[in-house]
Amino acid sequence: MYTQIAAMCIFALSMSITPGPVNMVIVASGANHGLRKTLPFVSGAAIGFILLLIVLGLGLMQIVTTHPILLKYLAIAGSIFIIYLGYKIGTARPDISIEEDSCPSFKQGLLMQWLNPKAWIACIAGLSMFMDDKSLDPLLIFSILYFVICYLSLFMWAIMGSKVGLLLNTPRRIRFFNVSLGSLLSVCACYLLFDFLHAAI
């Protein structure tokens, strides 16, 4: 049992801490708005991922594996949404003080995970490794561990973003950072979509 818990923790950490669309939005938000204002998005993303994991574990995964075309549509919709967020970041006004309403929200974090191809891949891969047809205990343990690790990982990205924000003390630097990160986010979304669709063929 301890070996399985250790494996669950390693899997959750490797999937949560590695760069992806959600992490990039968190870094951008931390840099532009600070740690405190980024926490709602972090919370939404962590909760959204765990809800996706639980829903898939409770039966949606069977529907998805029976009808794989659904994943293609989700991957396309998710990539478009992530590219849109990249555009919003890249075109944000390079002001030293940025409006409150331009900060990514809890709802956006929640929605982004359900439209994030990386989140779907992580959930399906994790459930394939750790699910038990005879008991829901592994799903419960995996979900609790994943939530804690995911939240802490995303929180660390938010801290990193807020530290980067200390260097962004001119409109020109803010503009360069936003355009770079927004472009990188859009490229990441296109890569995830291509990789996802290529694997599904």
Q: What structural class results from the helix and strand content?
A: mainly alpha
Number of strands: 0
Tally the helices.
8
**Assembly state:** single chain
- The proportion of residues forming helix, as a percent range, comes to over 70%
Taking the sheet with the most strands, its summary is: none
| Spans of at least 5 consecutive residues with low confidence | 96-101
Report on the architecture of this protein:
- With 201 residues, the protein is mostly helical.
- The chain is 82% helix and 0% strand.
- α3 packs parallel to α5 (106-114).
- Mean pLDDT is 82; it is low at 96-101.
Ordered list of secondary-structure elements with their pairings:
Layout: H1 2-17, H2 21-33, H3 35-66, H4 69-90, H5 106-114, H6 117-130, H7 137-165, H8 171-200
Helix pairs in contact: 1-7, 2-3, 2-7, 2-8, 3-5, 3-6, 3-7, 4-8
Summarize the structure.
This protein has about 200 residues and is an all-alpha fold. It has eight helices and no strands. The protein has helices at about 1-15, 20-35, 35-65, 70-90, 105-115, 115-130, 135-165, 170-200.
Summary keywords:
201 residues, mainly alpha, globular, 0% strand, 8 helices
